[in-house]
Amino acid sequence: MAGKVFFSVTMSLDGFMAPEDVPLDLVFTPEGRSDPRARRWQRKWSELQAWVFPQRWFRENLKLGQGGEEGADNDALRATFERTGASVMGRRMFDGGELAWPEEAPFHTPVFVVTHTKRDPWERPGGTTFHFVTDGIVSALDQARQAAGDRDVRIAGGAETIQQYLEAGLIDEFTIALAPVLFGTGIRLFDRVDPDRLALEQTRTDGSSRVTHLTYAVRQR
Questions:
Q1: pLDDT digits (tens, 9 = 90+) for 28-42
Q2: Backbone angles phi, psi at 121, to 5 degrees
Q3: What is the C-alpha separation between 81 and 173, in angstroms, rounded?
Q4: 98: helix, coil or strand?
Q5: Taking every annotated instance into account, which residue ranges of this chain make up the domain Bacterial bifunctional deaminase-reductase C-terminal (predicted)?
Protein backbone atom coordinates (compact mmCIF):
# COMPACT_ATOMS: atom_id res chain seq x y z
CA MET A 1 0.00 0.00 0.00
CA ALA A 2 1.32 3.44 -0.93
CA GLY A 3 2.33 5.71 1.90
CA LYS A 4 1.16 9.23 2.65
CA VAL A 5 2.33 12.51 1.18
CA PHE A 6 3.23 14.98 3.91
CA PHE A 7 5.33 17.94 4.86
CA SER A 8 6.93 18.87 8.16
CA VAL A 9 8.24 22.37 8.77
CA THR A 10 8.98 24.87 11.51
CA MET A 11 6.86 28.02 11.53
CA SER A 12 7.07 31.24 13.52
CA LEU A 13 4.17 32.20 15.75
CA ASP A 14 3.10 34.80 13.19
CA GLY A 15 3.02 32.34 10.30
CA PHE A 16 6.40 32.53 8.56
CA MET A 17 8.49 29.48 7.64
CA ALA A 18 11.54 31.42 6.43
CA PRO A 19 13.01 34.93 6.51
CA GLU A 20 12.78 37.19 3.48
CA ASP A 21 14.47 35.92 0.33
CA VAL A 22 18.06 37.02 -0.08
CA PRO A 23 20.54 35.91 -2.77
CA LEU A 24 21.82 32.43 -2.00
CA ASP A 25 25.43 33.43 -2.50
CA LEU A 26 25.08 35.87 0.39
CA VAL A 27 23.73 33.33 2.86
CA PHE A 28 25.70 30.25 1.88
CA THR A 29 29.15 31.47 0.87
CA PRO A 30 31.91 32.81 3.12
CA GLU A 31 32.23 35.90 0.93
CA GLY A 32 28.58 36.85 1.37
CA ARG A 33 28.03 36.20 5.05
CA SER A 34 29.37 39.57 6.17
CA ASP A 35 26.59 41.30 4.24
CA PRO A 36 23.96 42.77 6.66
CA ARG A 37 21.16 41.04 4.76
CA ALA A 38 22.88 37.67 5.16
CA ARG A 39 23.54 38.26 8.88
CA ARG A 40 19.90 39.17 9.44
CA TRP A 41 18.74 36.08 7.51
CA GLN A 42 21.05 33.79 9.49
CA ARG A 43 19.97 35.29 12.81
CA LYS A 44 16.27 34.84 12.09
CA TRP A 45 16.73 31.34 10.65
CA SER A 46 18.79 30.28 13.67
CA GLU A 47 16.12 31.56 16.05
CA LEU A 48 13.40 29.69 14.14
CA GLN A 49 15.32 26.42 14.07
CA ALA A 50 16.88 26.70 17.53
CA TRP A 51 14.85 23.73 18.79
CA VAL A 52 16.49 21.40 16.24
CA PHE A 53 20.20 21.95 16.86
CA PRO A 54 20.48 20.45 20.39
CA GLN A 55 18.58 17.25 19.55
CA ARG A 56 20.53 14.00 19.76
CA TRP A 57 19.10 12.53 16.57
CA PHE A 58 19.86 15.68 14.55
CA ARG A 59 23.43 15.85 15.82
CA GLU A 60 24.08 12.19 15.06
CA ASN A 61 22.44 12.32 11.60
CA LEU A 62 24.63 15.26 10.55
CA LYS A 63 27.67 13.78 12.31
CA LEU A 64 28.01 16.77 14.62
CA GLY A 65 29.01 14.57 17.54
CA GLN A 66 27.37 12.29 20.04
CA GLY A 67 25.08 13.34 22.86
CA GLY A 68 22.27 15.85 22.87
CA GLU A 69 18.74 16.25 24.10
CA GLU A 70 16.11 13.51 24.06
CA GLY A 71 12.36 13.86 24.41
CA ALA A 72 9.40 14.98 22.30
CA ASP A 73 11.46 17.14 19.93
CA ASN A 74 14.07 14.46 19.34
CA ASP A 75 11.32 11.88 18.79
CA ALA A 76 9.61 14.14 16.22
CA LEU A 77 12.79 14.54 14.18
CA ARG A 78 13.55 10.84 14.23
CA ALA A 79 9.98 9.85 13.34
CA THR A 80 9.95 12.21 10.34
CA PHE A 81 13.17 10.68 9.05
CA GLU A 82 12.07 7.09 9.63
CA ARG A 83 8.74 7.44 7.81
CA THR A 84 10.25 9.11 4.74
CA GLY A 85 11.03 6.87 1.78
CA ALA A 86 11.67 9.71 -0.68
CA SER A 87 11.54 13.50 -0.72
CA VAL A 88 10.48 16.21 -3.19
CA MET A 89 11.85 19.74 -3.14
CA GLY A 90 11.97 22.87 -5.25
CA ARG A 91 15.03 24.09 -7.10
CA ARG A 92 15.75 27.03 -4.79
CA MET A 93 15.86 24.75 -1.76
CA PHE A 94 18.20 22.43 -3.62
CA ASP A 95 20.45 25.28 -4.75
CA GLY A 96 20.82 26.50 -1.17
CA GLY A 97 21.39 22.98 0.10
CA GLU A 98 24.01 22.24 -2.53
CA LEU A 99 26.02 25.09 -1.04
CA ALA A 100 25.31 24.24 2.60
CA TRP A 101 24.83 20.48 3.05
CA PRO A 102 27.76 18.31 4.03
CA GLU A 103 29.13 15.85 1.48
CA GLU A 104 26.87 13.17 2.98
CA ALA A 105 23.57 14.96 2.42
CA PRO A 106 21.14 14.45 5.32
CA PHE A 107 18.31 12.66 3.45
CA HIS A 108 19.70 9.13 2.88
CA THR A 109 16.88 8.42 0.40
CA PRO A 110 16.09 9.50 -3.18
CA VAL A 111 15.24 13.20 -3.56
CA PHE A 112 13.31 14.56 -6.56
CA VAL A 113 14.00 18.20 -7.42
CA VAL A 114 11.31 20.10 -9.33
CA THR A 115 13.16 22.28 -11.83
CA HIS A 116 13.18 23.67 -15.36
CA THR A 117 16.82 22.73 -15.90
CA LYS A 118 17.92 19.27 -17.00
CA ARG A 119 20.72 17.67 -15.02
CA ASP A 120 22.01 14.15 -14.53
CA PRO A 121 21.25 12.48 -11.17
CA TRP A 122 23.64 13.56 -8.43
CA GLU A 123 24.61 10.74 -6.08
CA ARG A 124 25.98 11.56 -2.64
CA PRO A 125 27.55 9.33 0.01
CA GLY A 126 25.14 7.82 2.50
CA GLY A 127 22.30 6.86 0.16
CA THR A 128 21.05 10.24 -1.12
CA THR A 129 20.62 10.64 -4.87
CA PHE A 130 19.09 13.83 -6.29
CA HIS A 131 16.97 13.38 -9.41
CA PHE A 132 16.00 16.45 -11.45
CA VAL A 133 12.42 16.48 -12.74
CA THR A 134 11.53 18.94 -15.49
CA ASP A 135 7.91 17.95 -16.22
CA GLY A 136 6.13 19.24 -13.12
CA ILE A 137 5.09 18.48 -9.58
CA VAL A 138 2.85 15.53 -10.42
CA SER A 139 5.63 13.74 -12.25
CA ALA A 140 8.03 14.41 -9.38
CA LEU A 141 5.53 12.98 -6.90
CA ASP A 142 4.84 9.92 -9.05
CA GLN A 143 8.55 9.17 -9.21
CA ALA A 144 8.96 9.76 -5.49
CA ARG A 145 6.06 7.41 -4.70
CA GLN A 146 7.62 4.69 -6.79
CA ALA A 147 10.96 5.15 -5.06
CA ALA A 148 9.40 5.27 -1.58
CA GLY A 149 7.48 2.01 -1.89
CA ASP A 150 5.20 1.63 1.12
CA ARG A 151 6.91 4.46 3.02
CA ASP A 152 5.80 8.09 2.93
CA VAL A 153 6.84 10.89 0.59
CA ARG A 154 7.93 14.14 2.19
CA ILE A 155 7.52 17.45 0.40
CA ALA A 156 10.63 19.02 1.86
CA GLY A 157 10.12 22.59 0.68
CA GLY A 158 10.45 25.41 0.17
CA ALA A 159 7.23 27.26 0.77
CA GLU A 160 6.30 27.72 -2.89
CA THR A 161 6.68 24.01 -3.61
CA ILE A 162 4.61 23.06 -0.56
CA GLN A 163 1.92 25.54 -1.65
CA GLN A 164 1.80 24.03 -5.14
CA TYR A 165 1.21 20.56 -3.71
CA LEU A 166 -1.46 21.86 -1.31
CA GLU A 167 -3.25 23.70 -4.13
CA ALA A 168 -3.15 20.56 -6.27
CA GLY A 169 -4.78 18.52 -3.49
CA LEU A 170 -1.80 16.19 -3.21
CA ILE A 171 -0.99 16.55 0.52
CA ASP A 172 -2.46 14.01 2.96
CA GLU A 173 -1.17 15.53 6.20
CA PHE A 174 1.35 17.93 7.63
CA THR A 175 3.10 18.76 10.87
CA ILE A 176 4.12 22.22 12.01
CA ALA A 177 6.65 22.81 14.76
CA LEU A 178 5.32 26.13 16.07
CA ALA A 179 8.24 28.13 17.41
CA PRO A 180 7.89 30.97 19.95
CA VAL A 181 9.47 33.59 17.69
CA LEU A 182 8.02 36.49 15.71
CA PHE A 183 9.35 37.41 12.26
CA GLY A 184 7.09 40.28 11.21
CA THR A 185 8.11 39.74 7.59
CA GLY A 186 9.32 36.80 5.56
CA ILE A 187 7.94 33.89 3.58
CA ARG A 188 4.54 32.74 4.77
CA LEU A 189 3.68 29.07 4.64
CA PHE A 190 0.07 29.46 3.44
CA ASP A 191 0.28 32.65 1.35
CA ARG A 192 -0.85 31.11 -1.96
CA VAL A 193 -3.26 28.51 -0.64
CA ASP A 194 -7.00 28.89 -1.30
CA PRO A 195 -8.67 28.41 2.12
CA ASP A 196 -11.98 27.53 0.48
CA ARG A 197 -10.51 24.37 -1.05
CA LEU A 198 -8.98 22.78 2.04
CA ALA A 199 -10.34 21.51 5.35
CA LEU A 200 -8.02 20.56 8.19
CA GLU A 201 -8.48 18.07 10.99
CA GLN A 202 -6.09 18.31 13.91
CA THR A 203 -4.95 14.78 14.69
CA ARG A 204 -2.11 15.21 17.16
CA THR A 205 -0.45 17.72 19.47
CA ASP A 206 2.91 17.26 21.17
CA GLY A 207 4.67 19.95 23.12
CA SER A 208 8.03 20.66 24.66
CA SER A 209 9.64 23.63 26.32
CA ARG A 210 10.93 24.73 22.89
CA VAL A 211 8.12 24.23 20.33
CA THR A 212 4.63 22.78 19.88
CA HIS A 213 4.19 20.06 17.25
CA LEU A 214 0.80 20.26 15.51
CA THR A 215 -0.30 17.56 13.06
CA TYR A 216 -3.25 17.98 10.65
CA ALA A 217 -4.97 15.72 8.18
CA VAL A 218 -5.88 17.53 4.94
CA ARG A 219 -9.23 17.10 3.26
CA GLN A 220 -10.56 18.61 0.03
CA ARG A 221 -13.77 20.62 0.39
A1: 888 887 899 999 999
A2: -55, 145
A3: 15
A4: helix
A5: 4-207
